Backbone:
C-alpha cells in the first residue's frame, strides 16, 4: 500500500513539475482548467513511462557519449525524455533546448521527492 501512495505522490509532483516547466518555457493550448489538469496528469504519467522504459535503453546506447563528456550528456538524455513526454501529451509544446532546462528542474523535483520519501522510511523503521 505504501508503494502505491509513494507512486501517486511522485506522479502528482512530477505533473506539478511539468506544469511549472511548461509555464516557464513552453506553451499550452487554451483549454479549461479541468482539461489542463488532466493534460498535466497525463503528461506526468507519460514521463514516468518514458523514464522507466526508454531512458535506460537510450543511456546504454549513448554510453560512449556519456563517458566522453564525463556525464554531461545525461542532461541531453533527460531533456529528450522531457521533450518526448511533452510532445506525446496533447495541447503542450516545448522546444528541445528548453526541455533540457526543464529536465534539470524535474531532476531536482525527483531528487527532493526521493529524499523526502527516504526520510519517511527512516522514521518508520526507527
Residues:
Amino acid at each position: 500500500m505504501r508503494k502505491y501512495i509513494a507512486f501517486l505522490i511522485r506522479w502528482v509532483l512530477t505533473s506539478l513539475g511539468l506544469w511549472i516547466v511548461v509555464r516557464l518555457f513552453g506553451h499550452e493550448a487554451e483549454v479549461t482548467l479541468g482539461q489542463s489538469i488532466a493534460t498535466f496528469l497525463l503528461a506526468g504519467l507519460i514521463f514516468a513511462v518514458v523514464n522507466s522504459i526508454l531512458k535506460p535503453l537510450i543511456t546504454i546506447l549513448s554510453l560512449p557519449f556519456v563517458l566522453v563528456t564525463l556525464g554531461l550528456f545525461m542532461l541531453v538524455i533527460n531533456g529528450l525524455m522531457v521533450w518526448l513526454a511533452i510532445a506525446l501529451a496533447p495541447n503542450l509544446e516545448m522546444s528541445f533546448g528548453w526541455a533540457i532546462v526543464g529536465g534539470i528542474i524535474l531532476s531536482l523535483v525527483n531528487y527532493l521527492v526521493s529524499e523526502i520519501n527516504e526520510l519517511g522510511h527512516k522514521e518508520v523503521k526507527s
The CA atoms of residues 14 and 21 lie 10 Å apart.
